[in-house]
Amino acid sequence: MALEFISTIGPWNKINLYTDFLSILEALNTFKTSKQEILAIKSDILEMSKEISIALHWILAHTGMQGNETAHSYAKKATTRPNIEKIANPLNN
């Protein structure tokens, strides 16, 4: 979902995506997977990386890292909405 959204609001020359979901990063890093969701994400990353540098980063969850709790809150709210919405940068407020 993040990749889909990012591709609509560019242009970007470098993207850093941060997640506290370690297992998704591990799944993306393996060659042996039959899960369609993982294959689709890999495909999206490969396609986007032809034009944009993409880096994926793992961060610890719920450790008080600045912005992580806010990002978690927004991500949780986003799962209940049918459409992706652009929000003002909450980390600068």
Automatic annotation (TrEMBL):
Q: Residue limits of the RNase H type-1 domain?
A: 1-80
One Pfam entry name = RNase_H
Q: Which InterPro entries match?
A: RNaseH-like_sf (IPR012337), RNaseH_domain (IPR002156), RNaseH_sf (IPR036397)
- A molecular function GO annotation: RNA-DNA hybrid ribonuclease activity
| Superkingdom classification of source | Eukaryota
Q: Which PROSITE patterns match?
A: RNASE_H_1
Task: Output this protein's name.
Answer: RNase H type-1 domain-containing protein
Q: What is the lineage of its organism?
A: Eukaryota, Metazoa, Ecdysozoa, Arthropoda, Chelicerata
